[in-house]
Structures are given as C-alpha cells and as structure tokens.
Design a protein that fits this description.
mainly alpha; elongated
Amino acid sequence: MLGTSMHMACLLVVAGLFGGMSLFSVGFAALLFKHLPPAEARMLIRKAFPPFYLFVIVSSGVASLLAWPSDPSSAAQMAVVMLTAIAARQLLMPAINRATDMGHKTRFVYLHGLSVLLTLAHIVLAGVVLVQLDR
C-alpha cells in the first residue's frame, strides 16, 4: 500500500512539474510580452525566474525521493533535472543577467538559448518520467 501511495504521489508531483514548466515557459513569458512594455516584461521575467527554478528544484527533488524505492531510473532522471536546475539558478541565470546589464547581446543570446534548451530538456525528461511512471 505504501509503495502505491508513493508511486501516485510521485506521479502527481511529476505531472505538476511538467505542467508548471510548460505553462511558465510557453504561456507566462508570451503573456507578459504581449501585455506589458518590453522593459517591464523583462524586469518581471527576471524576478520570476528565481522562484521558477526553485519550483523545479524542489519538485524534481521530491519526485526523485518518491520514485527511488520503486523506480531508480525515474529517480535518477528527476535528480538530473534537480541538479541542472540548481546550476541554472545559481550560475546560468546570473550570467544571463550580467550579460543583459552589460549590453553583451551576443553573450545574452547564447546564454539565453542555453537556458531555453535546458528548460526544454527538463520538460522532456519530466514527460519521459510521466510515461515511465504510468506503466
């Protein structure tokens, strides 16, 4: 019974992670840039990313712990999401902000592209884990 409860809890956490990352990545940014002046949208995005990454870190960490007893592969994949989200929050995000503040457009484009690819990889991994957990 406990294994089933942990499995269902893990499934719910990963589903929330998948949906939250997808909504933030696709919907939130587009909505801001559609309805706010660019400078205000950029400032709000900058303020939203630390809590977004914290959400990804905590959710993937919890999912990893919940999955470990019955599905070490899913646990490992969620741990990868957690660790790379920590790196993104602590290293990549400040580097993107510095590039923006210093007017280094080429560096910003490169780093921003890297963060987009990383977030897409996180979404894909969460989707893969959802499929694995649903078996």
